[in-house]
């Protein structure tokens, strides 16, 4: 995974828990890396080691770490450098969800070794929709939960995200049920 994403884990820990905590996590994960470069791809194993070490050091389940960093990543890393990309792709939550593939394809122009996830929106109603997530990488469903929650916040659309079909339990891919929480949603 590109350093851009790994760095989010580092910055998240440093900002919320301090530099010393990150140093301990670096030791636990046996990371032989001083710092992550945004534009450099790293073996996926490194990302999993980092999540495992954060979970151990902070005593937070790995799923929750992924979810929190998903939110953090969109709030800070992506928003700071790539906010335009997000708003250019659509004017509301549902629009942007439907254009995630296109957005990652654009990103591939910058990050040539990108192995992007792929998303599909189905079952759209007034109350919500289903989001299908495919990836070559296992175990990142809760990262998507955090990203989608934050995307909702960004477009002033409060959402509840529920994992209703799980690859980890043998399903072909992960599926999220997304429900709008406000009575008159501003999702469209
Ligand atoms: C402007 C905002 C965004 C940028 C710049 C961006 C960029 C990236 C990059 C560079 C990666 C690493 C992939 C690799 O190294 O092969 C990645 C992965 C990922 N992105 Fe995005 N992304 C953005 C927004 C989003 C949003 C809004 C979602 C979902 C709701 C999303 C879902 C994911 C997921 C789940 C991964 C993990 C990789 C995987 O599933 O295999 N991204 N993205």
Summarize the structure.
With 188 residues, this protein is of the alpha+beta class.
> Mind describing the biggest β-sheet?
4 strands, antiparallel
Number of helices: 7
Poorly predicted tracts of residues: none
Mean pLDDT across all amino acids: 92
Instruction: Enumerate the strands of the largest sheet in spatial order, edge to edge or round the barrel.
Output: 1-2-4-3
If you consult CATH, what is the topology of the largest domain?
Answer: H-NOX domain
Question: What percentage of the residues does DSSP assign to strands (E)?
Answer: 5-15%
CATH level-two architecture of the largest domain: Alpha-Beta Complex
Give the beta-strand count.
4
Structural class of the secondary structure composition? alpha+beta
Q: Write the element-wise H/E pattern from the N-terminal end onward.
A: HHHHHHEEHEE
Overall helicity: 40-55%
Hetero compounds: protoporphyrin IX containing FE
CATH top level assignment of the largest domain: Alpha Beta
Instruction: Report the CATH superfamily of the largest domain.
Output: H-NOX domain
Count of domain modules: 2
Shape: globular
**Alpha-carbon distance between the termini?**
33 Å
What is the alpha-carbon Rg in Å? 16 Å
Question: What does this entry look like structurally?
Answer:
With 188 residues, the chain is α+β, with helices and mostly antiparallel strands. It folds into 2 domains: 3-60; 92-180, Alpha-Beta Complex (H-NOX domain). The chain is 51% helix and 14% strand. It has 7 helices and 4 strands, in the order H-H-H-H-H-H-E-E-H-E-E. The protein has helices spanning 3-17, 19-28, 44-58, 62-88, 93-98, 100-107, 141-154; strands at residues 118-122, 128-134, 159-165, 174-180. A 4-stranded antiparallel beta sheet has the order 1-2-4-3, with helices on one face. The chain is globular and about 50 Å long. It starts with a helix and ends in an 8-residue tail after the last strand. The relative contact order is 0.13. Protoporphyrin IX containing FE binds next to helix 1, helix 4, helix 6 and helix 7.
């Amino acid at each position: 995974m590109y350093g851009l994403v790994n760095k989010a884990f580092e910055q998240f820990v440093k900002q919320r828990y301090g530099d010393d905590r990150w140093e301990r996590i670096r030791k636990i994960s046996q990371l032989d890396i001083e710092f992550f470069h945004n534009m450099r791809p790293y073996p996926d194993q490194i990302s999993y080691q980092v999540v495992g070490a954060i979970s151990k050091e902070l005593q937070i389940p790995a799923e929750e770490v992924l979810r929190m960093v998903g939110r953090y990543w969109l709030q800070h890393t992506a928003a700071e450098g790539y906010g335009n990309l997000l708003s250019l792709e659509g004017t509301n939550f549902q629009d942007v969800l439907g254009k995630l593939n296109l957005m990652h394809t654009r990103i591939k122009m910058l990050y040539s070794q990108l192995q992007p996830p792929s998303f599909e929106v189905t079952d759209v109603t007034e109350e919500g929709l289903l989001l299908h997530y495919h990836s070559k990488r296992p175990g990142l469903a809760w990262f998507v939960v955090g990203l989608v929650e934050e995307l909702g916040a960004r477009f002033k659309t409060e959402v509840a995200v529920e994992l209703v079909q799980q690859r980890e339990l043998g399903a072909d891919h992960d599926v999220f049920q997304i429900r709008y929480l406000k009575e008159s949603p501003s999702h469209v």
